[in-house]
Design a protein that fits this description.
The protein has 114 residues and is of the alpha+beta class. The protein has a single domain, classed as Homing Intron 3 (I-Ppo) Encoded Endonuclease, Chain A (Alpha-Beta Complex). Helices cover 31% and strands 25% of the residues. It has 4 helices and 7 strands, in the order H-H-E-E-E-E-E-H-E-E-H. A 3-stranded antiparallel beta sheet has the order 3-4-5. A hairpin with a 2-residue loop joins strand 4 and strand 5. The protein is globular and about 40 Å long.
Amino acid sequence: MMSKQAELLAQATQADVDRFMKKVKKLPNGCWFWTGGRSRGQGNSLPYGTFSLQGRGVRAHVFAAEVIGKKVCPPGHHRDHTCEFSLCVNPDHIEIVPASENLKRRWSSGEHKK
């Protein structure tokens, strides 16, 4: 059974992708900088992009990974920014990893202190 978010993402259209990409600035280092809305959310010290899809807010990097990059995130896994930039939405910079690995990387990078 799909989660509500997975169902919502599965319904994204090309028009949604086009609207999303209007809020992206491609940087020389390969990051896609999210220029749209942002929020911190529970447990996050860094801001993450927020995108409106059918009237519901979804994390911009989640939309990028799942809809543009076709990277499904199974239960118990997280989407990790390999570039360590929370506002990057380049699907090539988002890796699906077990939650334990994401936590380990977060602590080793010092992101938990920011």
